[in-house]
Each structure stands twice: as C-alpha cells, then as structure tokens.
C-alpha cells in the first residue's frame, strides 16, 4: 500500500503542475475582454504542514501531513486555487462512523488528492470544479469528478464537457458515465433552492475495483488519472472559446448573485468541505473554493 | 397554550413594527457618510404561506403556516431583513430526535418568532443580529438573543451593548447575564477560524421556567419581550453614534472580507439556518441573513 500511496501522491502533484502550466498559458493568451489590460496572472504556492498532536484541533481528529496551495489571481481566472495534499491521522469516533472501513481500523486514515475550483472574471466563461483523491482506511478507494458551473449555460459547452467525460468513462468501463453523471446530478443539488449547482459532469466515490471485479487498484488509478487528464483537455477549450469576449455590467451582476449559490452549496452540503473542516484540515486550503466576490442583494 | 401562542405571535409582530419604524427614522436622519446622497430606505413587506402537505418538501418534515419578510435596502442599512413567522407541522423522525419533547409528541411542533440581521453600508457601524422565538412540542420554551458584529470593534460600543443586555437580564434573573453571555460566546464561534463571530451579546434557549422554579411561562415571556425592547433601545444608539462618518475604500474592503466570516458561520453552524432549511422553511426568509456583498479575495 505504501507504494500505491506514493504513486497516487506523485500523480496528483504531476497533474497539478500540468494544470498550472496550462492555465498560465491561458493567462498569457488573452487578447480581448474587459480585463485584458491586467498583467497575466501567475500561480503563487504556499506549503503547509500540520501536526495536530502538537496543536490539537477542536474536532477530536488527529491530522498530520501537509499540502501545497497554488493560487492565481489573474485576468482570465479571477481566482483559481489548486490544492494538493497528503495527510494521515486518526478520525474522531463520531467521524469514523461515517467513513467506510474507518472503525475497523481504529479511525486511522490516509488521504491524498488534488482539488481545484476556478472562478472566472468573465460571466461568459463557466466556473469549474475538479477533484480526485485516494483514501485509505481498512479499505482503500478513489473518488472525485469534475463539474461545470456556467453562469449562462451554453449547450455547446455543456455537450463538449459531457462528451469528453463520457469518452473518458467509456475507456474504462461502459457503465461508469451513466452512473457517475447521475451521481453528480444528485450530489451537486441544492434542495433549499431546488436547483442543481451547474450543468453537472461526473462524480464518483468508494471506487474499489475488487467490488467491480475488474482490474483492482491499478484500474481505478488509471481511471482517476484519466479524469484529471480529461479535465485538462476539455476545460481549457471551453475557456478559450469565450475568454476574449466582453461582458456587460448586468451579466457581471448576475454572475455575482449566482456565485452565492456556489457558496451556499459548498458550506451547507459539500462533503469535501465538511471532511476538511471536521478533520481539522487547513482552512485556507479548504475555503479556497469560495468565490472572490459574491452578492446576495 | 393557544392563548400563549397568540400572545407571543402578537408580540413578535408588535416588536417588528416598532423596529421597522425606528430604523426608517434612522434612514431619514442620516446627514453625512459616503451614501448620504441616496434616498432614505423604506421597508418592503412580503407575506408568505406554506402548506407542505400540498407540496411536500424534501426534508420529510411537514410545515404549515407562514410569515412576513420585511426588507429595507437603504442608505444606512445596506440590507436589513426583519422576519416574523408562525409555523406548525411535524418534524421528520431524524429531526425530531434533535428537538426536546418532539419525539413524545409524534414530531408535532409550533414555532413563532422574530429574526433580524442588519448589514450596514458603513464599515464603522456594527452589523447586528437579534432573534427571539417560542417553540412548542410536548414541551414549550423561549429562546433567542442579540449579538453585535463590528468590523472594527470599538470598546465603547461593545461595553454599551453588553451593559444594556446585562441590565435587561438582571431585571429578570441575576444568573442570566453570565450564563447567556457565555452561551453566546460559545455559540457564535467559528472553530475553523478559531474566531468568535463578533463581540458577543446574549444567547439563550430551552428557557422553560418550571425548570428554574420561578415565574413559569409568564416570566419567560416577559424576559423575551425585554430582550427585544433592549435591542431596540441600544442598537439604534450605536448606529447613530457612527452613521454620519465617512469611510475609506480600505475600510470597506475589510468589511467585505469580514462579512465572509458571517456567511461561513451562518451556513456552516447556525442552528436557525439549519432548523429552517431542514424543516422546509422559506429559503428567501432564512437566507435573508446573507450579506449583500462579500469577498473572499
């Protein structure tokens, strides 16, 4: 298992580097738009480490390890955070109840992953979220996905995004796309608004292929890598298709209001946020998903 | 109990009227400040009713009744919502477990209350929250409180606010202030930030004076009324002390960032928000507490 953890952690880091490089290229390429006079943005990186035995957090969980926050505030990307982390420790008893295999393991866990949320200056360019992770308790599994949140949904973008994810899924298991698309729609749903968060994508969790009787850890890791690569192939296409257009103040205002839904989702329902905060994770990293500017008028 | 419910509901409405009248007076009185050229704001009221048997909500709870939203977007108050509501119904089984006396009552409940959150244009005028409510299951109790959230805490305001609340508490029970001040500090705490929401105030719940062996429902109702009256006496003083000052862009920017904490608290931890959303309450009324403009830069 140690080798598998290392392979996964190395991949999340490699994917982070590829994403950051591509997004800085996008920053350089901007020619039009209301923000074109700004200088192209560059990622700034901050390492963090945690040893909660030294400074116990208030959740009752023990968290050790660390991660790296990469944040860019640019002229296409208003705010994008790309986090990688590799942590281990022990869940509190209450939290262990909620995590498969954690109780049988005295609450001990390991988690590695990459998480990304992009909020764009332009209301014409969709916001996006992508996250993949490997978790180890007495079980071990992968989870993640990617979903698109346009302010003004555009059928061409929605269909290109889903087509890329479907092809990715189909390369690994013909059942995945249907299952993970539906899971995404159920998961990114705001019951108090009776709205989905965006136009969906895929969401998967507890992927441990002994359950699926095909391929084991290697197959799940290959799929997880492909989700990352697929995201990196398709999202920049959608950004480039719209980033040089100008927008109106009314469009921007509507974007700021729609971002309120993103905040509501992430703080009320998102399991990643809950997981992070309840295990005493790095607050700055966890709440990097918050939009830079929001309105509830 | 029917008469008590009616008395409480009538009081919440009367308090709402007094607060709205006083706050409109404040809007008229503004002479200085960056927003003085705006017209004085006026409350707009919206009635809502709900019969979730007709249109079942997704929480499994049944909610009937309704309320009235009063909202003012003015030149002192950037956004203030004052909600009153009188609802009854049946908690879902999961939710009934969390509410005293609900299980013994097959989940049936009644709730009446007033809830107010004010977000100010000026970063020099504190935001504020006040809420009082009566809840009936197989038990019946009052709860509520008021707490102040200055952007730049000012010892004179903090001390005046607490002095007024202490005098209010002392008029009813010499033990209340100490107990309810501490409860407020514990309750309005953001563990992920290791910060209190503001400079506190009082918070009380499950106040059913048969437990305290003094005065019964009448005493608790008298205290609850006094909390409302005390809020109405002290908060306008604090507003008037600062509302005519001008502020800088840096001060405003800091206010927008601090408002992020308010959002984080309300969506991650606030029991009123959870109660409302989980019983299928009116989303617009519940999320009226969201600040009009927020930044997470």
Q: What does this protein look like?
A:
The structure is a homodimer of 297-residue chains. Chain A is built from 8 helices and 10 strands. Chain A has 297 residues and is of the alpha+beta class. Chain A has a single domain (2-286), classed as oxygen-dependent coproporphyrinogen oxidase (3-Layer(aba) Sandwich), CATH 3.40.1500.10. Chain A has a 7-stranded antiparallel sheet. In chain A, strand 4 (108-120) and strand 5 form a beta hairpin. In chain A, helix 1 (2-29) runs parallel beside helix 5 (216-242) and helix 3 (155-170) runs antiparallel to helix 5. The model of chain A has no long low-confidence stretch (mean pLDDT 93). At the A-B interface, helix 6 and strand 10 of A face helix 6 and strand 10 of B.
Multimeric status of the protein: homodimer
Helix content of chain A: 40-55%
Largest sheet of chain A: 7 strands, antiparallel
CATH architecture of chain A, by name, is 3-Layer(aba) Sandwich
Largest interface in this structure: A-B, 25 and 25 residues
Structural class, judged by helices and strands of chain A? alpha+beta
Helix-strand topology string of chain A: HEEEHEEEHHEEEHHHHE
Number of strands of chain A: 10
| Major sheet: arrangement of strands of chain A | 1-2-3-4-5-6-9
- According to CATH, the fold-level topology of chain A is oxygen-dependent coproporphyrinogen oxidase
Q: What shape does the CA trace of chain A take?
A: globular
Q: What are the segments of chain A in which pLDDT stays under 50 over at least 5 consecutive residues?
A: none
Instruction: Supply Rg of chain A.
Output: 19 Å
CATH class of chain A: Alpha Beta
Task: Provide mean pLDDT of chain A, rounded.
Answer: 93
What proportion strand of chain A? 25-35%
Number of domains of chain A: 1
Roughly how many Å apart are the termini of chain A? Answer: 51 Å
Question: Number of helical segments of chain A?
Answer: 8
